[in-house]
């Protein structure tokens, strides 16, 4: 009796654990499914890395290009050479480039168009920010191309003005705004209108004017019911539905 009770309790515990596991697995699948939807909804696209705080996406281009060439590459991918709006973005871009194992410790950022009357910086992509901690030294002018340094004698993540036409070129970092894609319910295209070339027929048996097997003979008088129409009346061949 004791063995039977122990076996029953063990079986009961197994069922409880199985039920709990099944419930947990269901919850995991549920959240995994909806988590995937959210990720897809906000996805930057292949090759891009997302910074949630600024709702922006960044991509490292490892090939060495002049500034204008790198900008064209970014534009072809839906972005611009990266502006930097705050320290979070600066650190994110620095880490992204560092992990890319660039052959040169310098890469292109965007370009400063001007300094506003309030002292804020306007970037070439329209971003306006007062963040200037990236400058090791105060910028000497406006409309200058900027590069970020990963090492050498400058602090990591610092910026320096550089000639846009530098012939050897640098790697670069592109930036684009994260765009959320709204869900859409797919709809089937409207069915094309169906036409049927009708011809005369007669209802009586043995008549030469017969309908095809997939048709039925409908009397001229559409107000009468099929079963009450006279057998020798005439009608039209219509599809059987």
UniProtKB/TrEMBL annotation:
SUPFAM superfamilies: C-type lectin-like. Keywords: Disulfide bond, Membrane, Transmembrane, Transmembrane helix. It comes from Caenorhabditis auriculariae. Pfam families: Lectin_C. Residues 53-173 form the C-type lectin domain. The chain crosses the membrane at residues 20-39. This is C-type lectin domain-containing protein. PROSITE patterns: C_TYPE_LECTIN_2. It comes from the Eukaryota. The keyword Cytoplasm does not apply. InterPro entries: C-type_lectin-like, C-type_lectin-like/link_sf, CTDL_fold, Snaclec.
């Amino acid at each position: 009796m004791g063995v039977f009770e122990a076996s029953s309790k063990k079986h009961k515990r197994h069922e409880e654990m199985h039920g709990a596991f099944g419930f947990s697995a269901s919850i995991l699948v549920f959240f995994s499914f909806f988590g995937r939807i959210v990720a897809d909804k906000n996805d930057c696209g292949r090759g891009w890395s997302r910074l949630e705080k600024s709702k922006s996406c960044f991509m490292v281009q490892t090939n060495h290009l002049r500034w204008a060439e790198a900008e064209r590459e970014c534009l072809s991918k839906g972005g611009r050479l990266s502006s930097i709006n705050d320290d979070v973005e600066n650190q994110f871009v620095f880490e992204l480039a560092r992990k890319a194992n660039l052959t040169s410790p310098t890469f292109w950022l965007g370009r400063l168009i001007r300094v506003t009357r309030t002292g804020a910086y306007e970037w070439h992509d329209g971003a306006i920010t007062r963040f200037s901690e990236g400058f090791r030294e105060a910028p000497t002018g406006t409309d200058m191309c900027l590069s970020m340094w990963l090492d050498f004698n400058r602090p990591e993540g610092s910026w320096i003005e550089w000639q846009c036409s530098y012939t050897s070129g640098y790697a670069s970092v592109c930036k684009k705004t994260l765009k959320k894609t709204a869900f859409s319910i797919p709809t089937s295209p409207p069915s094309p209108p169906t036409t049927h070339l009708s011809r005369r027929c007669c209802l009586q048996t043995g008549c030469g004017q017969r309908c095809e097997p997939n048709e039925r003979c409908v009397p001229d008088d559409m107000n009468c019911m099929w079963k009450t129409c006279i057998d020798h009346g005439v009608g039209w061949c219509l599809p059987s539905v």
